[in-house]
What we know:
With 519 residues, the chain is mainly alpha-helical. It is 75% helix and 0% strand.
Amino acid sequence: MVGHLVRLKLTLLRNGLRRSVWQVLGLVVAALYGLGVLVLAGAGLVALSLQDAALRETVLVLLGSALVLGWWVVPLVAFGVDATLDPRRFVTFGVPRRDLLVGLTLAGLVGVPGVVTALLAVGTAAVWWREPLAALAGLVGGLLALAACVVGARASTAALAGVIGRRRVREVVAVLAVLLLAMTGPIISGLTDGVAALGTGGLGRVVDALAWTPLGAGWAVAPAVVAGDAGAAVLRLLVALATVALAYLVWDRALTRTLVQPASASHEVKARGLGWFARFPATQSGAIAARAATYWVRDPRYAMAVAIVPVLPLVMVVSGAGDLVLVAGPLTGMLVGWSVSADVAYDGTAFWTHVAAPLRGVVDRCGRVVVAGALGALATVVVTVATAAWADALAHLPALLGAGLGLLLTALGAASVVSAMVVYPVQQPGDNPFSTKQGTSAVAFTSQLVGGTAVFVLTLPATVLAVLAVVQGSAAFGWAALVVGVLLGAALLVAGVVLGGRLLDRGAPELLARMRSFP
């Protein structure tokens, strides 16, 4: 049964690659990325093996602990990324629980992350090649650390499945993840300063502490052997074994609960009256706008566009960008306006209702841009005024608003055209907003690149006037930027809605057929 589960994972992977050339391309890119990581890490391990034992211990324990922590935490954030062997799929089969546990553990190594981690864990033993006994201890410790990674990841996701499966929790986690990603630079800078402040002695104390934790115990067995401390080596080995055993026990209990009482779908629809449909006119455009408003409020895929708004100026302020923070307002308009470029793709196969209904394309386009336009205008004005006040540049407010509103309106118009022409696999409702469907990258990248370039070129008149107003301190250029940005943006929005509507009238059935073919 264990071998069958591993073969099943390989079969699912092979069948997925047969569906689309883009999935093959995605796997090739991931494999090349993993190969690059292995080459760099291998070169680092070779260089590290020539250093003294203290430095080898410091590097392995610190990086190894970060690796284990990543395996435990990332699945909680990237929920839904790999559910090909979801334990809930085996509820109706009489698979012995022990076989299921072992099989799912080994199947977890099938894939680029698993293979790279396994090779790195085994390869760390080569760092101790000058001390054969330590190399053997390093191999055992590396295998235990690898088991802690895989089993711990399964245990954390299974134990917290009831929590992270809730929509609101997923949305909060997604927002926090965006904040952390946006703050990567300041965080790395802070960690670097913190390590420098600790000094050699302080860093050594951190390593000594990690060596006795579930994160670093497996990596710290070999250094204890090199130091001739047999007692510490045995105790650290016991800590690593206990970590795997405890993770196995947690996963076993959680798996038993899942198989006996499988959780229902986390995105069940709850009746809440008419909601936004009672607030919009009883027209076709009003109905589409009401549904769009519901998406923006309740769908984390749309909420990400709103969540990024306060992050932009915050990152710029923290990173000491100075007056560069003034671009946050115009950039907000661009991001929110362009966020509807995948609107039809987000509809999925539910788009059939638009195809079946006697609905003109221009009506569809109008209903979709109303809500995004209102939210984008509010966000653009608030961020622009706030950043201008922070930078003591309120005199440049007309220019900044002209650039921001011009980008917002133009992006809405361009997105209305792109979403009527291009669809690609996207996250389904309730999925992790960070998960990426295989076969998406090339199509999404091309459409985003072409569309973004078009928006930039079309808004050059307002942008140039705004830059001149700020650089030269000219109020006339500032007010001209505001007038040109709003009028030109409004004209481009109308043109985009009309053109997108015509494209939708002609190509809606083809878009639906394409989405129905997605895996």
